[in-house]
Design brief:
624 residues; alpha+beta; 4-stranded antiparallel sheet; globular
Length: 624
């Protein structure tokens, strides 16, 4: 019998060493266990006696210190109570072949082998190794020209060009890219007195076909869900669990608005403008990726699983055909929304009427692809929501109120919390898309036709997901909290405390302190967070320690791979504890205000987790 069990995923192991190895290698369980260890350290801290953390005979925390031995006898079905959706959801209409099965059926009908169009399996393997090797076309040509390759391999392709032609002859399974020419007419005149027209190219694929490819991929057969579920820790349903998207509220609530038996495909979009050249050339790319919430987040987050596919590239241009910098910015925003609206055009009909798709379990279902979440950093979130960066892209609070808790900002129950798409478009129509100054007073960018306007069942302001790396690790902790604490103490004092930390396998050693670190990454941020609370007592006053304690508490709680009603309340309590002690930083003239966008975004985490699931489902493994 397997006597050791991981308490995070309930997988069993014969030995304790196997369990420890599992906690080290599996990303989701490793993060959950690190969070648990950090919470132990935080619980040791007494805000009324900051030095108590350094006293006592307790052993240091590590993989062997926490009681992680849990037998399967202790984990019964009674621990998790699953509630299925009361109506019909994700109901199959029949059976059908998946795309790969249809391709193989066509090959058999034409008497082709599975390695067609290559004549032999050996040639297929040779071509595969050449393409995976990373060799340039010139090096492939030289390799295939060797006498040994010519006489012994006797391949049907003799250079890189003929090799690529054979590969192009393979029947496509993925949706094909399309190229659309876009002409932007500016207000700058050329030598002939005519307005300059800039031509751009938009490469994109059909999003409905991309959803069909993911739903029909048999590699995801065992990690796919087609209906919402309610997960509770007891039969009384007093403690709910939030994990994957199908365990959250959005899917459950939307299912009742669709025909009986309908299958929701929650579309998750992600985009990030990326600079391709550092020193010269000034080249940038703006890729847009697509995945679906039906796939388990543990699979979806792994790059090697290919569960997130490229939807298209938004053209990047400085738009010099317009005269002023303000016009460049405004037209670039409108170009972004025009391109995305063009990309997502098939979703307008598919999201309203549904499309029959073959799923990975060979079942034919009526699928409604609906935009559910959008992953982006804060400047791009403002661009997507058509709001100014000085305003919140999610709620309607004023910039000067962002430092207060939501309960204080929206104390009047009649005042809306989240932004409303209808009100947004009504304001644009009222003042006009050309009246940028009037719209700026409402925190709105003058975009006459946002890409999300009219998308069925889409609420873009509820769809913007938390960004752990930029909002918490870099924004809250590195850019602000660590700077405040260093100002209250000194660089020398903080560096000295980092230098004398005992060596531990799970803790990064800063031998020269932190003030000399020039290149910061997510790894350094997280390593500092593990020990930061323990280093501060005695270096800064107790109120600042308590505020730091609360902020780090909220950072770790936000990253839980699985939340419950209790842990979400703890996250809300941590935010309130910070608000209770934050005035100390203003009194010490470390800060003048707390109207910080990334601090304010944390106030929405609890509601977003309840709506779309835990935040690790919207963050790549490399960023958490």
């Amino acid at each position: 019998m397997l006597r050791h069990c991981c308490k995070y995923c309930h997988r069993g192991f014969h030995t304790r060493q196997g369990l420890c190895a599992h906690l080290t290698t599996r990303a989701s369980c490793h993060l959950a266990h690190e969070v648990s260890l950090a919470q132990q350290a935080i619980r040791r801290y007494d805000p009324h006696d900051p030095e108590a953390l350094f006293r006592g005979d307790d052993p240091p925390l590590g993989w062997e210190d926490e009681a992680i031995d849990v037998t399967f006898d202790d984990i019964g079905e009674r621990d998790i109570d699953m509630e299925s959706y009361p109506g019909e959801a994700g109901t199959p209409k029949g059976t059908a072949r998946t795309g790969f099965e249809e391709l193989r059926h066509t090959q058999k009908g034409n008497n082709h082998q599975v390695y067609h169009p290559f004549p032999t399996l050996d040639e297929w393997k040779l071509a595969e190794n050449l393409m995976r090797s990373g060799l340039s076309h010139a090096k492939i040509d030289r390799l295939l020209a060797l006498p040994t390759m010519v006489t012994r391999a006797n391949a049907s392709f003799h250079n890189s060009r003929s090799l690529l032609q054979l590969i192009d002859a393979i029947p496509p399974v993925s949706p094909e890219f399309k190229c659309m020419n876009i002409k932007v007419r500016g207000n700058v005149l050329d030598a002939d007195g005519e307005p300059i027209i800039e031509e751009l190219e938009l490469f994109h694929r059909d999003p409905v076909e991309c959803v069909g490819e993911l739903l029909g991929n048999t590699a995801f057969r065992d990690v796919m869900c087609y209906a919402p579920e309610g997960t509770y820790v007891d039969e009384k349903h007093s403690e709910r669990i939030y994990n994957d998207m199908w365990t959250a509220d959005w899917w459950w609530n939307l299912q009742s608005k669709l025909p009986p038996g309908a299958t929701i495909a929650p579309i998750i979009l992600a985009s990030d403008k990326t600079r391709l050249s550092q020193f010269s050339g000034d080249k940038s790319a703006w890729p847009v990726y697509l995945t679906i919430g039906n796939i388990s987040k543990c699979t979806r987050r792994q790059i090697g699983k290919h569960a997130m596919i490229l939807l298209g590239y938004i053209p990047v241009s400085k738009l010099h055909c317009f005269a002023t910098a303000d016009q460049h910015k405004m037209q670039a925003q409108r170009l972004f929304h025009y391109c995305l609206r063009t990309m997502l055009q098939p979703l307008f009909a598919a999201g309203a009427q549904g499309v029959d798709m073959t799923c990975a379990d060979n079942a034919l279902r009526q699928v409604f692809p609906i935009l559910s979440a959008y992953i982006a950093d804060f400047p791009e979130q403002a661009l997507v929501a058509c709001t100014l960066e000085s305003w919140c892209p999610i709620c309607s609070c004023f910039p000067e109120d962002r430092g207060d808790p939501l309960a204080v900002i929206f104390s009047d129950d009649a005042e809306p919390l989240f932004r409303d798409q209808c009100d947004h478009m009504a304001d644009v129509c009222k003042y006009g898309a050309d009246n940028a100054k009037a719209l700026a007073k409402l925190g709105i960018h003058p975009v006459p036709q946002p890409f999300w306007h009219g998308l069925p069942h889409c609420d873009i302001f509820h769809s913007l997901t938390p960004d752990i790396l930029h909002q918490l690790h870099k924004g809250v902790f590195k850019d602000h909290l660590s700077t405040w604490c260093t100002s209250l103490a000194t660089n020398l004092e903080i560096d000295t405390r980092f230098k004398v930390l005992p060596i531990h396998p799970s803790v990064k050693c800063f031998k020269k302190g932190i003030s000399t670190v020039s290149q910061w990454t997510g790894t350094e941020y997280k390593s500092m967070e593990k020990v930061f609370t323990a280093l501060l007592p005695g270096a800064i006053p107790p109120p600042a320690v308590r505020a730091t304690h609360a902020l780090l508490d909220s950072i770790y709680l936000s990253q839980y791979p699985s939340h419950s009603t209790t842990t979400l309340q703890r996250l809300q309590d941590a935010l309130e504890h910070f608000h209770n002690d934050k005035q100390f930083f203003i009194d010490q003239q470390v800060r003048q205000h707390f109207h910080i966008p990334k601090f304010h975004m944390r106030e929405h985490y609890v509601e977003l987790i309840k709506s779309r699931g835990t935040v690790d489902g919207f963050t790549p493994v490399c960023s958490t």
